[in-house]
Amino acid sequence: MTAALLPVAILLASFLPALATFFVPQKDAATRNALNLGGAVVKLALVGFMIAEVSAGVVYETRFDIVPGLSFLLRVDALSLLFLTLSAFLWLVTTIYAIAYLRDGPDLSRFFGFFSLCVTATAGIALAGSLVTFFIFYELLTLATWPLVVHKGDARSLAAGRLYLGYTLTGSAVLLVAIVWLEGATGPIEFTGADLRDNPGAPDETLLRVLFVLFVAGLGVKAALVPFQAWLPSAMVAPAPVSALLHAVAVVKAGAFGIVRVVHDVFGFATVVDLGLSIPLAIAASVTIVYGSLMALRQTNLKRRLAYSTVSQVSYIVLGIALATPLAVAGGLAHLVHQGLMKITLFFCAGAFAERAHAEEIVELDGVGRRMPLVATAFSVAALGMIGVPPVAGFVSKWYLGLGGLEAGAPWVVGVLAASALLNAAYFLPILYRIWYRPADADRAAASPVLGLSAPPVVTALAALATGLFAASILSPLAWSILIVERFALP
Predict the structure, then answer these.
(1) Is 318 in contact with 483 (CB distance < 8 Å)?
(2) What value, to the nearest 5°, has the Cα angle with vertex 269 and ends 88 and 343?
């Protein structure tokens, strides 16, 4: 009974605070903050409780019938716990940051209500044990995130919100077509890692290829795969905590995580490889990696540069899964966590720069390192990690991806990673130069950042550094990713 209740408890830890927060008066910051911080602490504690058990092979599961023959299924396995742990940890840190960032802003109960609802949807995506359950939470994430994107209520925000809905709802429609088409032939699909071709109702190979393209296209919108990425830079008009959530743990990660589930749990690695779909998916990811980096190089606004960096970096996850070798898959899964830690640090810092130094454009960052040393140091650590400089976490996952490319007989992957690293250096190093070496603008004095704005990026930057330094530890994201790979049925 306890095992069946734990997945539900994890969802309720953010869902109940979300519902309650909508009814908290605007001026009652103490109650609103207590609800959201309390829920985040409870969720993180529940996730921590399960780590030892899941590492030993225990699977927590909750199931009940929606209609006869179709179940709502929540399951905590090693893969879901990887994403869930990242979500729970970063929800707590981002809530602290958001409280400080928004302070006495308007409509805070609405904001934090949808914020916690967004986290609930993300946790549901991680916990989903079937395609139908996954789709329910995938749609909830779209609907819960839109009010956060348009929170400011100005023309730019509303336009970005329309673009966001246009892309994501179209992607969801494509995904729904793929799910109905496939399950119409096979029956309900649960995430068990079985080879789809073993299902008696499996379509022929030609139709399987069509369905795979539909799944990847539908999920690729949220994962910001080229050519579905245009919504992501536009969404940067949202407040910094929302940008951090979108890029590090919620929307783009939901798309990438969905592709992981489709490759492993819907089709099976062997099916994807045998149908000749592995290399085309790897090429699509590689094109996105290079395109995102090239576009980032052209941006003069800091948040837009970081947004295009996300377009590039999230596709490392897809690349690792597509290559379908143990080293590549381990690198891709580890990058799911590594990228989250580094990217949320960068957006936290961008928000702090904008709030305390009034610097939103890259040219406005001159000398900010001397005025905001802790925040600037955190930004520097995360940026170097994105480039792939050891010992920050980004180096570890990229190293494994490179080895995985060689293991897969695709040495061109090393070239893609090298090109991406050079491009990352080209758009991050000039920022670091401005932050630390350019003289400060006397007319742009920075107020000392409040603790709630400076502590979260320092914590996440230290986490990104620690996961690289201690990658060999049994508790590292890399070690957990290797554990997952050992349980995968790789070809």
Answers:
(1) no
(2) 30
Would residue 224 count as lying in a domain? no
Question: Is the pTM of the predicted complex or chain greater than 0.90?
Answer: yes
The helix/strand/coil state of 60 is: strand
Domain-located, residue 162 = no
- Cα–Cα distance for residue pair 7/60, rounded to 1 Å: 7
Strand-pairing partners, residue 61, are 75
Find the farthest-apart pair of alpha carbons in the chain and give their distance in angstroms, rounded: 72
Total structural domains in the chain? 1
Query: Residue 302, Cβ neighbours under 10 Å: how many?
Result: 25
User: At 112, phi and psi to the nearest 5?
Assistant: -70, -25
For 208-236, give one letter per residue: b (16+ CB within 10 A) or e: bbebbbbbbbbbbbbbbbbebbebbbbbb
To which residue do tokens 């290079």 refer? 290
**Is 61 in a helix, a strand, or coil?**
strand
Q: Which domain holds residue 350?
A: 327-491
Task: Give per-residue pLDDT as tens, 371-425.
Answer: 899 999 999 999 999 999 999 999 999 999 999 999 999 999 999 999 999 999 9
How does pLDDT run across 43-99, given as a tens digit for each residue? 999 999 999 889 888 888 999 888 877 889 999 999 999 999 999 999 999 999 999
d(CA 372, CA 380): 12
Residues in contact with 464: Cβ distance below 8 Å, sequence separation at least 6, in sequence order: 338, 341, 342, 345, 381, 382, 385, 392, 393, 394
**Strands, E, within 15-153: which ranges?**
60-67, 70-76
Measured CA to CA, the distance from residue 3 to residue 102 in angstroms comes to 38
Cβ proximity of 234 and 149 under 8 Å: no
Rounded to whole angstroms, how far apart are CA atoms 219 and 111?
Answer: 26
- Identify whether 2 is part of a domain: no
pLDDT value of position 445: 56
Say if residue 195 is exposed, middle or buried (CB neighbours under 10 Å; 0-12, 13-18, 19+): middle
Please check whether residue 455 lies inside any domain of the structure.
yes
Please, where are the H alpha helices in 358-450? 368-371, 373-387, 393-407, 412-437
